[in-house]
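pinning this so it doesn't scroll away 📌
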Amino acid sequence: MVKFGDYLANNIDEGWKDYYINYLLLTDLIENIISFRPNSEKLFCKQLDREWIKYYNFINDTISNICNRELTNRDILELLRTNEFVHLNREGFRKIIKKHDKNSNYKLYPAWKWKIRYNPTFKLYPALKKISELHNSQDCEAVVSNISNTSFKRTSIKFWIEHKNILPVICNILPNLPIHLWDEDINEHIYQMTSSVYLDNNQLECYDKRINKDENSKLIRIRWYGEDMENVFVERKVHHDSWVLIDSSKDRFQIHSRNILPYLRGNLMINRPLEKEIQTIVNEKKLYPKIRTVYKRIAFQLNHTNKLRISLDVNLKLIREKTNHMEWFTEEDNLLDDDVYRFPYAILEVKLVDDYIETPPKWVADLMNSTLVIPQHKFSKYIHSIYHFFGNRCEKIPYWIENNKERFNLSWENTNSIVINERSNSEIDDVNNNTNTRSCLSSWNCMRRPKSQVNSIKIEPKTFFSNERTYLQWFNAAVFVASGGLTIMSLSESKTAGTLLVLVAILIIFYSSFIYYKRNDALINHRADGYNDLYGPLVLSMIMIISFIISLVLQE
């Protein structure tokens, strides 16, 4: 394992070398603290402050200069250079403070927490917008737009992105796809603030159906953009399995925020089919605001088509709603710290339509296969939010949590919630390198009854039919073998050969029945394994061969 000091030294940008954190000097000062040298603690803190001020002033001046000058596509390299500089220094400050706190009676992390997390790369967004506008100026200006924002169907592939990789991902997209803004006049940023309130009931019925991917499962949410409460959308998402030959869909209608409560209560009647259906679902299932997601969405798309659309959700917050009878979402002043969880990854979603589904552009395929992204194709903000706040009431755990134990630190905090603390890759390395660190995942498992994992596989009805056909083929083989045995017994004075074949046929029937019910149980419970049989066919084949050989010997 390469030490961070060596890694930093090997990755320093020579043009900016004087502005990096002096990690080796600070490490030496920590050695003085360990040796109890006079004033060692004071000297370390003063040097740490000097390193921070040096870094802070330089990076903010650099970003300001980039954003205030005329930019070209070549400046993407400058943005990537700045991003790398920021994250190397952030990691340096994080590690040196962790090392200090481990070896000192004085803990600096509480006071330095905001500095460690300080990420000024968001200030580069205006520069990204300028570069994107260069792309837009070259786009087809006369093409008529055929984009619909009310009902759309597509294939979506999702990824997680670590904070240090957000800017590199954007810079990979920009030369090929511009930033898309729905309203250029009111949006001064490259992102659109998006808020979504999801409805469920006390039994978490919507969660159970969505996590199981039940056919025709529906999810209701209320969405708005920025501070615009006059144009609120009520949406219905419907999941369909591929075997029904109907695409999953999302449909919505617009409503003023003051009409949301009367509509949800059934006091405001709207006779249009979609509005009436959603209102019926809400009232019959007793749905109410359960959780909310808030994030900044950066969209990449050509102005005239949505054949390829990429969205990047940053600063994702998951919120537990605590509404009273007079509101449909919780005011910020009424939220406690435990009601808000900041998701540590950005969410990239690649949305493909038509022939792009099977053959996306090469640059898209290269991005999806790169180390900049972490594939999580079935990730759901809604499912993750419900499990985070109401995990003790959820029967099934999302597969991306089960499959990423090294990224998740699960702990039992109280009877109302499961606290899920995601770790970055660097923090995972720290844990893996410290054999004295005991993950509270094990203690959480001891205190909780086991949950079944929801796998990423989907079972369709035709799979059950295939299992039945396999069983019938084995059964037919058994009937054929038994018929042969009975025929031999009727035509031969020796009954041994025929008896052996009949016994083999009975064995085949028992074996095939056992395998049928075993696989059927695995299908019903959506298990990802238990379908293959490595030894059964070989054993039965050997028994058949031996039986035939014995029959031939006895016939002689």
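📌 and the second one:
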Amino acid sequence: MALTYKQQVESYVGTVTDVDVLSQYLTVSARRIVDLIPTAKAQQYAVLLTVDALGSDTTNMRVLEVTGGGYSARQVPHGMLAQIADNDSIFKAVTKDPIFYTDTNKLYVSPSGTDRMLSIPYPVVLSSDSDILSGVTEYDEALTLGAAIQVRSKNIEDARSALPASIGFLDVTNELTQLNTSLATDQDIELAVGWIQDIQVRIAEYSAKLTNIASDMQKAVHTINILQLSMASLEKRYQEVLALQFGIQFGGRNDSK
């Protein structure tokens, strides 16, 4: 039985308790993989959809090819819409040379007719899933590494947020005022000694607080260092997998991260 994606991610980062967040990370990672699959290979996972005359939503899919009335449609930028509608323009869209364009996550074909688009829906991945493309597992390592990196990044963020933003200051103003009053005004040595003892207690408590904070900070920094090393290792392997499967080069040459 295939391991679930949660189990695969946990093999990199340890136990993950928030399965809903993990599912979100997996979905983000899957979207990137779908975008990276070479077009020729991606077609085997694609579905043919009808393009509505009023435009079709493409928010959750990768569009591979568009046809208008059975003819291949070419994509044009928004700035050419006036030209493709102009009967006197050489860029005029015609039945045998249709065009398509996108506007606010909607795809339109001109001239409108029997229009189709070949696309891959972006999968919504659950942590309990074990495949994203109808049993295809060749992208599982890239998928789970991408999610694992997001988990580790959140781990580092949480560890950093645990560091104290401030430690406060020791304020013995009141005690010093009372001490001075005892000596200068009341001339009460016994009362003054009491205030001195109070100040000593406050200083000792503050010193203990600083010691505890310093210890906690040292532990947090150590944890962050370990997490960062783990992150670097995951990113290195992720880059290796993307280079192997999709030809993406890193190290300043063609880093698509």
